[in-house]
Amino acid sequence: MSTLASIRDLTVTYRRDGREVAAVRDVGFDIMAGERLAIIGESGSGKSTLALAIAGLLPASAKVEGRIDWLLPTLGAKPPLGGSDIGFVFQDPSASLDPVMAIGKQIAEVAHTHLGLTWPQAYAKAKNLLERVRLPDPDSALRAFPHQLSGGQKQRVAIAAAIAAGPKLLIADEATSALDAIVQAEIVALIRRLVAEDGMTLLFVSHDIALAAELAQRIAVFRHGQLVELGATARIVGAPVQAYTRALLDAHIGLDAEPLLNRARLRA
What we know:
Layout: E1 3-16, E2 19-32, E3 36-40, H1 47-55, E4 63-70, E5 86-89, H2 93-96, H3 103-115, H4 119-132, H5 138-143, H6 151-162, E6 169-173, H7 181-198, E7 201-206, H8 209-215, E8 218-223, E9 226-232, H9 233-238, H10 243-250, H11 257-266
Parallel strand pairs: 3-7, 3-8, 5-6, 6-7
Antiparallel strand pairs: 1-2, 1-4, 8-9
Helix pairs in contact: 3-4, 3-6, 4-6, 6-7, 8-11
């Protein structure tokens, strides 16, 4: 498995109340092409800041030190482009979708802009993507507006838009946290299927170690902006080294580690 991105000594700081506060500190690891990697940690652990840094979506107020080197041969020396090389799924689809634009146009616009498709071609691709994310009645959905859809349906639309240009890397940043448990499971299964079908690399950001174990081959654990543990999912779930990782597992009331461990091994 080749390396997609190499992250070295990455630090991201913000200025607050006249002083610099580090959201991510001295982080280094590799993202392998085609893998499913989960970034987990509590709120404020720096995991979302890391995801935004990788995607090049940090605000101008952020100060970034260190390196993110993209090593996939098809990228050459240029950094990846958001939308085409990297697809990003945000936590709240209501905030990421334009409320006054039909969802078909929102998806088609990505394909039109990044793939150079004509509008009729882009709309045909949008319909195909709505079918792939299993949104009921794709023809009607093309004309629908975000407020006419449920939370789970809106997240399916956001995923369709994120993969419309065929990205090499899909980043899902807390993409299931605003959904109920049943819809969470459906979205995780959807992401797993789409990543496999399109041969994408996945970076799955979550506070939920059980969801991460269902989906990822490797897990990176973050605390206070630092990477504290990284390893194969079965090892992280079955024999965590750090007390913090064990606490994340213990925090899931009723979590039965053995079935979770078995599922992690099956999906490795």
